[in-house]
């Protein structure tokens, strides 16, 4: 993996000078000057509210509070106490997807909100062999039977499955295999009944899928599965809490329903992989460019691989879908995101951002309760 970029390192004092450091560079790239200034402005945000003081981040007490694996893209995530990760992301995260049978285009909960109610479950390998399975079940009122597919199909199994080129974000170069079972109806038949039109369940093939480059990493060569763009997505609990307060401040306007005076904004709406807490103020992920994660309170040399945050995560309407009901809200959280979190990504200034995309540099393990050790800070 090559990044070929020198990362800025900031001390606690230097963090306060981030705006000065980045603005001269930003002047070379319109409309970046406006974006950088609006992001780092200490007095006001685009929405007119007070911006967090980034110099007050507590980088010594950040811990992992939740780990979410989403085996099938856009289906329900699984909260796990620990997960192995590789260059492609968390183990089994988005290794499967559902595609339209007529053109192999990936189907997501943006199109079919009730996909979030499809429940995947990882049955791990036994001690002596790789016989793990992915079990899939459905809401009781769907009248769709559960089924399972192998976690680690053999080469012989792969050869018996249909190979297809899958299209995601207008690129049809992702190698996939249509999953089959030995008993009952095929997975694709059952899923087609559930979503209401012909679809296929596909597993990612071995041919690498390389992530798109970013402004900071123009030569990024990180692999991924069926993630929208990058192997990992991280977000802090403080950031989600801040968005919840913004939403409560918008009740009664722009279509924000009265129920949001009391309803909780679940972190699951944003479909992250690693959730952490402890910085004391929201949006530390915006300035956290390199970190490691392990069980030691103090950083221990090279005990864990570096994870780099390579870009902010621009948002579509999927977070408006309630992860437990499959109902799409007409306003939340997108209206609040557009008011308070737009113009932060220089490459897509019209889109709102929440969370940041990460790339591991080697294989590792992350556990709930692990410590986040900040290595470098800058502009994500």
From TrEMBL:
<keyword id="KW-1133">Transmembrane helix</keyword>
<keyword id="KW-0472">Membrane</keyword>
<keyword id="KW-0812">Transmembrane</keyword>
<protein>
    <recommendedName>
        <fullName>MOSC domain-containing protein</fullName>
    </recommendedName>
</protein>
<dbReference type="Pfam" id="PF03476">
    <property type="entry name" value="MOSC_N"/>
</dbReference>
<dbReference type="Pfam" id="PF03473">
    <property type="entry name" value="MOSC"/>
</dbReference>
<feature type="domain" description="MOSC">
    <location>
        <begin position="193"/>
        <end position="375"/>
    </location>
</feature>
<dbReference type="InterPro" id="IPR005302">
    <property type="entry name" value="MoCF_Sase_C"/>
</dbReference>
<dbReference type="GO" id="GO:0030170">
    <property type="term" value="F:pyridoxal phosphate binding"/>
</dbReference>
<dbReference type="GO" id="GO:0030151">
    <property type="term" value="F:molybdenum ion binding"/>
</dbReference>
<feature type="transmembrane region" description="Helical">
    <location>
        <begin position="20"/>
        <end position="37"/>
    </location>
</feature>
<dbReference type="InterPro" id="IPR011037">
    <property type="entry name" value="Pyrv_Knase-like_insert_dom_sf"/>
</dbReference>
<dbReference type="InterPro" id="IPR005303">
    <property type="entry name" value="MOCOS_middle"/>
</dbReference>
<dbReference type="GO" id="GO:0003824">
    <property type="term" value="F:catalytic activity"/>
</dbReference>
